[in-house]
Amino acid sequence: MAKLKVEGYGTYEVPQEKRLVKAIEDSGVDILHRCGGNARYTTCRVEFIEGEPQQQTVAGRDKLLEKEESGIRLSCQCLVEEDMHVRVIHTLQSTGLDSPGGEPADEITPEPVWIRLER
Ligand code: FES
Predict the structure, then answer these.
(1) What's the whole-number average pLDDT of the chain?
(2) Domains of the chain by range and CATH?
(3) Nearest to 47 by CA among 6, 96, 92
Protein backbone atom coordinates (compact mmCIF):
# COMPACT_ATOMS: atom_id res chain seq x y z
CA MET A 1 0.00 0.00 0.00
CA ALA A 2 1.02 3.62 -0.52
CA LYS A 3 -0.15 6.91 0.94
CA LEU A 4 -1.97 9.14 -1.52
CA LYS A 5 -2.44 12.71 -0.32
CA VAL A 6 -4.88 14.75 -2.38
CA GLU A 7 -4.56 18.47 -1.73
CA GLY A 8 -7.68 19.81 -0.06
CA TYR A 9 -9.22 16.37 0.46
CA GLY A 10 -7.17 14.04 2.63
CA THR A 11 -4.67 11.21 2.74
CA TYR A 12 -5.67 7.72 1.69
CA GLU A 13 -4.13 4.25 1.68
CA VAL A 14 -4.17 2.94 -1.88
CA PRO A 15 -2.72 -0.17 -3.52
CA GLN A 16 0.60 0.23 -5.27
CA GLU A 17 0.44 -0.21 -9.03
CA LYS A 18 -3.16 1.00 -9.06
CA ARG A 19 -4.06 3.37 -11.85
CA LEU A 20 -3.81 6.85 -10.29
CA VAL A 21 -7.07 8.24 -11.67
CA LYS A 22 -8.91 5.30 -10.13
CA ALA A 23 -7.04 5.57 -6.84
CA ILE A 24 -8.07 9.22 -6.60
CA GLU A 25 -11.69 8.55 -7.52
CA ASP A 26 -12.01 5.47 -5.31
CA SER A 27 -10.76 7.64 -2.43
CA GLY A 28 -13.86 9.80 -2.86
CA VAL A 29 -12.45 12.68 -4.90
CA ASP A 30 -14.68 13.65 -7.84
CA ILE A 31 -11.86 13.91 -10.40
CA LEU A 32 -12.86 14.23 -14.04
CA HIS A 33 -11.95 11.55 -16.61
CA ARG A 34 -14.05 12.69 -19.53
CA CYS A 35 -12.45 10.44 -22.14
CA GLY A 36 -12.69 7.36 -19.96
CA GLY A 37 -8.98 7.20 -19.27
CA ASN A 38 -7.69 7.14 -22.83
CA ALA A 39 -5.21 10.06 -22.83
CA ARG A 40 -7.43 12.20 -25.02
CA TYR A 41 -9.19 15.11 -23.25
CA THR A 42 -6.72 15.80 -20.40
CA THR A 43 -9.46 16.41 -17.83
CA CYS A 44 -7.76 14.03 -15.38
CA ARG A 45 -4.75 16.32 -15.00
CA VAL A 46 -2.93 16.43 -11.69
CA GLU A 47 0.00 18.42 -10.40
CA PHE A 48 2.49 16.40 -8.40
CA ILE A 49 3.65 18.03 -5.21
CA GLU A 50 5.61 14.93 -4.16
CA GLY A 51 6.21 11.46 -5.50
CA GLU A 52 5.97 12.11 -9.22
CA PRO A 53 6.53 8.86 -11.12
CA GLN A 54 9.74 8.80 -13.12
CA GLN A 55 8.16 6.90 -15.97
CA GLN A 56 5.46 8.10 -18.31
CA THR A 57 3.47 6.69 -21.18
CA VAL A 58 4.14 7.84 -24.72
CA ALA A 59 0.41 8.55 -25.12
CA GLY A 60 0.38 10.79 -22.03
CA ARG A 61 3.54 12.63 -23.03
CA ASP A 62 2.34 13.22 -26.57
CA LYS A 63 -1.05 14.54 -25.45
CA LEU A 64 0.50 17.00 -23.00
CA LEU A 65 2.98 18.15 -25.66
CA GLU A 66 0.08 18.66 -28.09
CA LYS A 67 -1.76 20.75 -25.48
CA GLU A 68 1.47 22.57 -24.56
CA GLU A 69 0.94 21.65 -20.93
CA SER A 70 3.91 21.40 -18.59
CA GLY A 71 4.31 20.66 -14.91
CA ILE A 72 1.30 18.37 -14.86
CA ARG A 73 0.52 14.75 -15.62
CA LEU A 74 -2.48 12.80 -16.80
CA SER A 75 -3.58 10.68 -13.83
CA CYS A 76 -5.05 8.11 -16.21
CA GLN A 77 -1.52 7.53 -17.50
CA CYS A 78 0.14 7.08 -14.10
CA LEU A 79 0.38 4.23 -11.65
CA VAL A 80 0.69 4.63 -7.90
CA GLU A 81 4.33 3.67 -7.44
CA GLU A 82 5.05 5.10 -3.99
CA ASP A 83 3.69 7.71 -1.58
CA MET A 84 2.28 10.59 -3.59
CA HIS A 85 0.95 14.09 -2.96
CA VAL A 86 -1.12 15.52 -5.79
CA ARG A 87 -3.36 18.46 -6.60
CA VAL A 88 -6.36 17.60 -8.77
CA ILE A 89 -6.95 20.27 -11.42
CA HIS A 90 -10.57 19.56 -12.41
CA THR A 91 -13.35 18.03 -10.32
CA LEU A 92 -17.00 17.52 -11.03
CA GLN A 93 -17.86 20.13 -8.44
CA SER A 94 -15.36 22.72 -9.70
CA THR A 95 -16.53 22.44 -13.29
CA GLY A 96 -20.27 22.01 -12.78
CA LEU A 97 -20.38 19.22 -15.37
CA ASP A 98 -23.03 16.54 -15.06
CA SER A 99 -20.68 13.56 -15.17
CA PRO A 100 -16.99 12.86 -14.52
CA GLY A 101 -16.86 10.82 -17.73
CA GLY A 102 -16.76 7.16 -18.66
CA GLU A 103 -15.31 4.77 -16.11
CA PRO A 104 -11.60 4.18 -16.80
CA ALA A 105 -10.49 0.56 -17.10
CA ASP A 106 -8.43 -0.93 -14.31
CA GLU A 107 -5.43 -1.13 -16.63
CA ILE A 108 -3.87 1.84 -18.41
CA THR A 109 -5.34 2.46 -21.84
CA PRO A 110 -4.30 2.71 -24.57
CA GLU A 111 -1.77 -0.11 -24.08
CA PRO A 112 1.10 1.76 -22.41
CA VAL A 113 4.53 2.22 -23.90
CA TRP A 114 6.67 3.38 -20.98
CA ILE A 115 9.51 5.86 -21.25
CA ARG A 116 11.51 7.82 -18.69
CA LEU A 117 10.23 11.23 -17.63
CA GLU A 118 12.07 13.92 -19.61
CA ARG A 119 12.64 16.74 -17.12
S1 FES B 1 -6.92 12.11 -20.52
FE2 FES B 1 -9.01 11.57 -20.39
S3 FES B 1 -9.17 10.53 -18.52
FE4 FES B 1 -7.07 11.00 -18.66
Answers:
(1) 97
(2) 2-116 (3.10.20.30)
(3) 6
